[in-house]
Amino acid sequence: MSAALARLRRWPWIWSFVGAALVWLGAIEFTGGYGAGGMLTAALSLAVFTVIVGVGQMFVITLGPGNIDLSLPANIGLASAVAMKTMGGEDSLVALGLAAALGCGLAVGVVNYALIRALRIPPIIATLSASFVIQSVDISYGRGLQIKPPPGFADFTNIQFAGVPLLAILVLAFAIAAGVVLHRTVYGRSVLAIGQNIRAARFAGVMVEPIRFATYALCGVLGGLDGALLAGYFRGANVDIGNEYLLASIAVVVIGGTSVAGGKANLPGVWGAALFLVLLQTMLNTFGVSAGLRLVLTGAVIIGVIVAAGGEARGR
Amino acid sequence: MQTAASRALATHRAGPSASRLEVRRVLRTLLPALSLILVLAAIAWLNPRVISYFGFTLMLNYAVPIALATIAQMFVMTGNDIDLSIGTYVGFVCCVAATYLHDAPLLGVAALAGCVAVYALIGALVQWRNLPSIVVTLGMSFVWQGLAVLLLPKPGGAAPGWLQAIMGFKPPYAPLPILAAILIAAIGHFGLMRTSYGAILRGTGGNATAIGRAGWSLLNAKMALFALAGLFGALAGLALVGITRSADANIGNGYTLLSIAGVILGGGEFVGGVVSPIGAVVGALTLTLASTQLLGFLRIPPDWQVAANGAILIIVLAARALIGLKGTER
To answer: How far apart are CA B162 and CA B319, in angstroms?
Structure first.
């Protein structure tokens, strides 16, 4: 029993999957089993977008207290417009459009880091200020037009194999790769070391600033990728396409068991928490609750999960 | 990481470096005021006619709720926490004021008292379970927003007459927003910087372990800080609805980011219990003027107004970093 408990403590991400399973069971209990598979397919399709930015946010948050990227929604919005404009509705230009979106995200990440480093301002304010500027660029660039994706790209983002979206498989592979990078490479371990104790990491020879730069750049690139994929999936780019990912990206990281204080990342938890949040919305929708009550319950559940999971031990 | 205590120690050290540190400290304390003067000068240069009693009343109308929300955020940040729910909370209070407080004043007052109690409870939860406040308040932001939507599904309602009268009051000599700002800053400064319990509250941000060892209840301190945030957030909502006269569930959403930016602009820090109530109010005034009035006078196209907001924030913070003490980097 105590061995099982100890294992649970080492795997805090278990809870997010347990939560996801519970809300899924709650939803199909209500519908009498109807649409159980469809619900999972829909949840997987939507969760991938949260996972992609969640992983980026997780790397940033793991850098330690104060590190956070609030520019993700603006980044996603701009990248979606850049991708769709570059593709111009032509299937032959899909690769170029994706590259443009990644480049756009990379630029956002670089700007974020430059502001943090050169102006020595806290990341929360730096990325917030940057997001204002990015948003304006997007409004001015996109002109509020809904730009359609090429049919081939839109179909690609909607492919399913026996109810499992292709994107979900790809993003699962990506998450595994990110896990390897986090735990098995110099870069990933440096990120963890900086988060645990930035001074100790510096003394140990970790190149703190290049690692931080790489992390903000990585988060930016993932935001760009997410923007392009979202525009494909929802068949069009718009300025507000990334709005919900500000809160969602932070929520999945923390619910997934990553420490807000940094130095302790949890990759499986990002997937679990993303599924949990999407399925929670699905469940509340099937219950037919009003928009207001849905918000209240979502908030209450987030708080409930974090209280149940408990905080970290005091006095690091 | 520089806390209030270590900074005080540093300034007491003898030698030329200490005096240079002192100069920088003074400069940094003055920076919020300097940036306000700069923004005012720019406005005066662009449109001299607005520098008048009525000009200020109009320009600074929304500074009162923003300043109150900034003070609320400052209390939370004093204890090394952050409140991401203050914006939706302000919106919810607006909805309560435009419905219950107008139709059934007693019920309205009870609801607002309940809100402050919820804030104290959140503080207790954060302290007791050692939870990250960023996530708890993130969750609360959904809760307040949801409650506001339940209360007022469509924009509407009416603010109580007395609230509209207070916010529309035209005192002699000085415009209301300026008097209100001075009053808010004075109350905040006296309460947090000049009382012994205020020092304890700031101490929980600087060195919570020391405060705990000295026999103070950290739980009570955290509850006090959050309850004060709830109180000032409620006042911000009341002031806002007094100006707008009717409410909308999304009315306060922008206040979360405005309040954080205001505290930072005013010389506050995210950790270490380093805050300044006067600075926070000045920061809120600067943001109000810079984000609405200055941009209007500069004839910046609407597409780029948000960008200009961000740019102004970056410029002021860059100036702060240039003269700032080493150790602001995190």
So the answer is: 42
Q: What's the predicted TM-score (pTM) here? A: 0.83
Alpha-carbon distance B254 to nearest alpha carbon in chain A (angstroms): 12
- Break chain A into its structural domains and give their ranges: 14-28+35-308
How confident is residue A298, by pLDDT bands cut at 50, 70 and 90? Answer: confident
What ipTM is given for this predicted complex? 0.82
The encoded tokens of residue B53 equal 């009693």
A14-28+35-308: CATH number? 1.10.3470
The DSSP string of A136-198 is HHHHHHHTT--BPPPHHHHHHHH-EETTEEHHHHHHHHHHHHHHHHHHHSHHHHHHHHHHH-H
The better pLDDT of the pair B9, B235 is held by B235
Contacts for A144-149 with beta carbons within 8 Å, 24 or more apart?
A144/A238, A144/A239, A146/A236, A146/A237, A146/A238, A147/A81, A147/A84, A147/A85, A147/A231, A147/A236, A147/A237, A148/A84, A148/A89, A148/A235, A148/A236, A149/A83, A149/A84, A149/A87, A149/A89, A149/A231, A149/A232, A149/A235, A149/A236, A149/A237
Segment B79-138, tens digit of pLDDT: 999 998 999 999 999 999 999 998 999 999 999 999 999 999 999 999 998 888 888 998
Nearest to A260 among B135, B141, B143 (CB): B135
Query: Which structural domains are found in chain B, ordered by start?
Result: 43-328 (1.10.3470)
Contact check, Cβ <8 Å, B209/A315:
yes
Distance, in Å, from the CA atom of A279 to the CA atom of A23, rounded to the nearest integer, reads 6
What is the chain A residue with the closest CA to B291? Answer: A132
Give per-residue pLDDT as tens, B268-292. Answer: 887 788 889 999 999 999 888 877 7
Q: How many angstroms away from the CA of A314 is the closest CA of chain B?
A: 8
Q: Which residue of B has its CA nearest to A250?
A: B135
